[in-house]
C-alpha cells in the first residue's frame, strides 16, 4: 500500500507502522508530497513523524480509533456491503430534521440513532441533517471542534457505523446530510500546522488564524478541504453537506473556494448519477451565495435563513436583546417582509452591527427552496444560557402557530430534534475536553459570557459536567403522552399537507401574499389555493380570508370554515390551514 502525506516544509518524513519506521521519499511529480510503500490492510495503525518529531496522525486519516491524538487506521471502504439501492433525493420539496447523534438517544451512537429512524419516517421528513461527526477530544460534545476531517468520531461508532446509519436511512427513503466544519479545527488535537501552512495570519476569525485559502501553499489546502467534502458524499453515500459559518472562509481569490466546491460537487453528482447538494450557514445575507454559477453566483444549493428564525422568534417571545432588536421592533411587518422577500436585512440598517447589512434577493428568480426556514436549531437553543427550548416558555397553541408558519411557509422547512413533540428536555452546551486547562477556560468563558447579560454564574450549566449532556438527551417516553402526543400529531398533519398540496411546496416567492393585524395579533398568508392563518393573541380574532366557503384542511383547535363573507373567526393562540379549491 502507498502511504502519502503533504509536508512542504519538512526535511524528513518517517512512516511509523506496526512498530516499524519507514523513511519516506519526496514525490518528484508533486511538490511537497512524501510517499512510502508498506504492507497494510483495513485497521492497520500508522502515523507520520515530521523531522524526527513525535508520531502524529495522518492529516487525511480515515479513522482515529484512539481519538484525535492517537494513531490513524487504514479504512478499506470497499469492504462494506451496501444493501439499500438509492437513487438519491434532492432538496426541492424536502423537509429536513437536524439531529445530534450524541443526544438523540441516551446511548449516543449512530447505531442507536438508526433504530429510531422509523419515527422520522412516520413524521414525514425527507432528510436527516446530522451535526458534525469528525473526531473531537473526549466522548460527548457538539462536534464543532472536530479534527481529522475525513474520519468519524469513534464513540459514535466510527466509519462502519456511519455506513450502517446511511444504509438504514436510505432503505427507509430518508436522505442524509452531514454538517461539516471547514472554517476552523480543534483547538485540541489539531496537528495540521505541523505538516504545512493549513492556516494563515493574513485573515482572522473568531477561532483565530483563518484556514489558508488564498496565501502561499493554499492550492493544496483547498484541495484538502475539497477532497474531504467529496469523500463524505462518495464514500459514505451522503446526499448533501451543510457548511458551517461560510462567512468565516476568508478567500480573496478570483475563484472563491465555495464556487470551486460547488462545481466539484455538481461534477460528482453527474458521476454517481444522483442529486447532491450543499447548504451554507451564512450571516452575510448575500444572494450570490445561492445564485447559480452560470449567473455569476457561487452556486451553493441553499442556505440557512436566520432572518426568518429571528422574526418568528421575536414575534412569539417578545425577546429583543442583542441581534433580536431590529426584528422585535419590526413586529409582524418583519415577518411579512421575510416570508415574501427572503431576507429581513437586505441592505437595511442593522443596529446590532451598527451598519447596513445584506442585499436584496430577487424573489422572481431565486427559488424559495434555496432558503431553509426553521423555528429552532441547535444554535438558537444551545447558545442560550440554559439551553431552553421554546416549549419551556410558550403555550402549546403558540408552538403550533410556529410550526404552521414554518411547515406551511415557502422555505424548505427544517426541524430540530424533539421539536415535533415539544420536548421538555433542554439542549445545553456541553463539552468533554481532556485538556484540563482548556476545559476550565471553556467553563469560565461560558459563565463570563452570560454573566454580562445578567445571569448568575451558578445558573449557567457547567459544560464539562456529564449531567449537562445527560439533561440534553431526548426523552423518548414523551411522544406517547400529552401534551406531547397532540403536538406530534400536528407536525405530522402539517408535513402531510405539504406533501399532498403542491401549493405548499411551490418555490415561487413572488406568489406569497401576506396580511396581518399588528394590534389584533393575527397573521395570514396565501400560497396558491391554500390560505394559512395564525392568531398569536389570546382573544378570538376575525380574519378576512378573502374568499367565501374556504375548506378547513387542518386546525389546532376546532374552527368553523369562513362563511359567505369570507371572514374567519379564529380562537386565541391557534392556527388553521384552508383551501379554496
UniProtKB/TrEMBL annotation:
Its EC number is 3.2.1.141. It is found in: Cytoplasm. Pathway: Glycan biosynthesis; trehalose biosynthesis. InterPro entries: DUF3459, GH, GH13_cat_dom, Ig-like_fold, Ig_E-set, Trehalose_TreZ, Trehalose_TreZ_E-set_sf. The active site is at 244 (nucleophile), 281 (proton donor). Residues 53-66 have a biased composition (Basic and acidic residues). GO terms for cellular component: cytoplasm. Keywords: Carbohydrate metabolism, Cytoplasm, Glycosidase, Hydrolase. SUPFAM superfamilies: (Trans)glycosidases, E set domains. Residues 45-72 are annotated as: Disordered. NCBIfam families: trehalose_TreZ. Belongs to the glycosyl hydrolase 13 family. This is Malto-oligosyltrehalose trehalohydrolase.
Amino acid at each position: 500500500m502507498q502511504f502519502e502525506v503533504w509536508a512542504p516544509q519538512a526535511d524528513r518524513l518517517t512512516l511509523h507502522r506496526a512498530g516499524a519506521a519507514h523513511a519516506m521519499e519526496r514525490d518528484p511529480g508533486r511538490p511537497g508530497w512524501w510517499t512510502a510503500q508498506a504492507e497494510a490492510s483495513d485497521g492497520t495503525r500508522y502515523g507520520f513523524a515530521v523531522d524526527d518529531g513525535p508520531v502524529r496522525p495522518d492529516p487525511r486519516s480515515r479513522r482515529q480509533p484512539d481519538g484525535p491524538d492517537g494513531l490513524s487506521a487504514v479504512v478499506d471502504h470497499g469492504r462494506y456491503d451496501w444493501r439499500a439501492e438509492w437513487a438519491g433525493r434532492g432538496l426541492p420539496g424536502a423537509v429536513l430534521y437536524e439531529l445530534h447523534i450524541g443526544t438523540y438517544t441516551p446511548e449516543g451512537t449512530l447505531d442507536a440513532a438508526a433504530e429510531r429512524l422509523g419515527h422520522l419516517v412516520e413524521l414525514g421528513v425527507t432528510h436527516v441533517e446530522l451535526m458534525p461527526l469528525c473526531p473531537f477530544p473526549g466522548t460527548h460534545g457538539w462536534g464543532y471542534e472536530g479534527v481529522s476531517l475525513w474520519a468519524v468520531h469513534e464513540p459514535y461508532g466510527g466509519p462502519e457505523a456511519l455506513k450502517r446509519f446511511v444504509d438504514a436511512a436510505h432503505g427507509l427513503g430518508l436522505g442524509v446530510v452531514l454538517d461539516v466544519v471547514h472554517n476552523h479545527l480543534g483547538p485540541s488535537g489539531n496537528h495540521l500546522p505541523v505538516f504545512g501552512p493549513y492556516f494563515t495570519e493574513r485573515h482572522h476569525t473568531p477561532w483565530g488564524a483563518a484556514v489558508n485559502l488564498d496565501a502561499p501553499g493554499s492550492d493544496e489546502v483547498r484541495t484538502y478541504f475539497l477532497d474531504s467534502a467529496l469523500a463524505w458524499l462518495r464514500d459514505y453515500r451522503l446526499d448533501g453537506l451543510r457548511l458551517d459559518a461560510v462567512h468565516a472562509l476568508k478567500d480573496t481569490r478570483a475563484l472563491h473556494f465555495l464556487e470551486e466546491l460547488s462545481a466539484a460537487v455538481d461534477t460528482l453528482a453527474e458521476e454517481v448519477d444522483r442529486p447532491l447538494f450543499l447548504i451554507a450557514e451564512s450571516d452575510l445575507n448575500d444572494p450570490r451565495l445561492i445564485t447559480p454559477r452560470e449567473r455569476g453566483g457561487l452556486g451553493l444549493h441553499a442556505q440557512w435563513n436566520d432572518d426568518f428564525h429571528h422574526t418568528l422568534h421575536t414575534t412569539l417571545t417578545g425577546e429583543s436583546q442583542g441581534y433580536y432588536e431590529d426584528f422585535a421592533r419590526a413586529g409582524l411587518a418583519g415577518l411579512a417582509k421575510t416570508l415574501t422577500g427572503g431576507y429581513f436585512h437586505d441592505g437595511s440598517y442593522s443596529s446590532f452591527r451598527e451598519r447596513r447589512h445584506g442585499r436584496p434577493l430577487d424573489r422572481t428568480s431565486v427559488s424559495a427552496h434555496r432558503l431553509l426556514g426553521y423555528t429552532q436549531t441547535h444554535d438558537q437553543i444551545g447558545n442560550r444560557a440554559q439551553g431552553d427550548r421554546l416549549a419551556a416558555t410558550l403555550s402549546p397553541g403558540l408552538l403550533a402557530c410556529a410550526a404552521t408558519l414554518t411547515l406551511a411557509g415557502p422555505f424548505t422547512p427544517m426541524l430540530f430534534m424533539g421539536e415535533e413533540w415539544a420536548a421538555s428536555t433542554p439542549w445545553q452546551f456541553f463539552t468533554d475536553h481532556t485538556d484540563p486547562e482548556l476545559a476550565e477556560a471553556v467553563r469560565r468563558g461560558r459563565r463570563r459570557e452570560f454573566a454580562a447579560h445578567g445571569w448568575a454564574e451558578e445558573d449557567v450549566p457547567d459544560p464539562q459536567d456529564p449531567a449537562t449532556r445527560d439533561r440534553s438527551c431526548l426523552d423518548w417516553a414523551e411522544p406517547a403522552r400529552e401534551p406531547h402526543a397532540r403536538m406530534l400529531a400536528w407536525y405530522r398533519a402539517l408535513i402531510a399537507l405539504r406533501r399532498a398540496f403542491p401549493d405548499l411546496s411551490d418555490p415561487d416567492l413572488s406568489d406569497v401574499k401576506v396580511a396581518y393585524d399588528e394590534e389584533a395579533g393575527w397573521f395570514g398568508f396565501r400560497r396558491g389555493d391554500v390560505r394559512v392563518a395564525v392568531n398569536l393573541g389570546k382573544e378570538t380574532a376575525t380574519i378576512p380570508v378573502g374568499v367565501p366557503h374556504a375548506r378547513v384542511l387542518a386546525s389546532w383547535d376546532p374552527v368553523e370554515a369562513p362563511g359567505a363573507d369570507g371572514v374567519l373567526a379564529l380562537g386565541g393562540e391557534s392556527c388553521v390551514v384552508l383551501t379554496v379549491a
